[in-house]
Design goal:
mainly alpha, 2 domains, 3 helices
Amino acid sequence: MNCPHCGELIAEQAEICPKCGVRVKSIEDKPSIPVNLITFCCIPILGIIMFFVWKDDKPKAAKWALIWAIISIVFWFIISFLFGLLAAILEAAAY
């Protein structure tokens, strides 16, 4: 296989040309459904970590991981607030 940038002969499995440093295989940049689901359901910090890991190579996937982390944090904050409010109402009604 030849590098599309400099024309150097490179290995078929190479992702980056060793001569000019240009990426020869494009990385698919789409949101990762498993990471987004885990971020929303269980571990919001995972989305924040993946944002910093992917921000240069996969900006679209990084952006969506961060968005789902923020949505998850807001969602769980609202749920916690509502359960706290419900507990306070039930405790007040018990007396």
